[in-house]
C-alpha cells in the first residue's frame, strides 16, 4: 500500500485529503508543521509527500531541502502562492510537481497517479552510459562519480534523464518529454523542463554552464550527446 504523508496547517484540508486518499486505498499520515513532517518522514518513510509551502514553523522549501538531504521520495507541493518565483523555488529545491490552491481533489489525485507511474515499471536492460565524470546505470538506477561517490536523483530527474539516455543522439521534443515524464495534461509546462534540466546539469555535467552531454535545442527540445 502506498504511504502518503500530507503536510498542511489547515485542518479542513488535512481532513478532506485524509478521507479522499484513504477511500482510494492509500495509507495516509498527516502533519501540521514542517518539524512534525520531517520527524514523521524519518520515523515512517513515506512513498510520496504532499506538502503545503505556507507552514507555521518552517517554509515549505526548507522542508523540501530537509527531505532531499536523505531521500528521493516524490514531493507534490500545495500552495496558495501563485507566483512563478515560488514554483521555481520549490521545483529547484527538489519538488516533483506543484498544485496551486484552491485545487480540486481530482486534480491532485491525477498528479499523484502521474508521479506514481514514474516510479513503477521494470527497466529494460541497457548499457551503463557516461556523462562527464559520471557513470549512469539505468538498470540499477544509480549514478556514480569516478571517485566512487553516488549522486542521488529524484524520481522525476530519473524519468527525464532516462528518456534522453534511451535515445542517444536523437532530439527528444519538449512535448514528448512533458507527455512521457509528467503526463498529457502538462503539454505547456515548459518551465518544468528548464528547471529539471538545470538540476541534472548541476549534478552531472563537468561544467553546467557549458554542457557537453545534456544539450538544449532551443525551441525544440533536448538531446543526449554521448
TrEMBL record:
Keywords assigned: DNA-binding, Phosphoprotein
Pfam families found in the cross-reference section: Response_reg (PF00072), Trans_reg_C (PF00486)
Domain Response regulatory: 3-116
PTM annotation (4-aspartylphosphate): residues: 52
Domain OmpR/PhoB-type: 126-226
Keyword Phosphoprotein: yes
Residues of the DNA-binding region: 126-226
InterPro entries: CheY-like_superfamily, OmpR/PhoB-type_DNA-bd, Sig_transdc_resp-reg_C-effctor, Sig_transdc_resp-reg_receiver, WalR-like, WH-like_DNA-bd_sf
Keyword DNA-binding: yes
Annotated protein name in UniProt: Response regulator
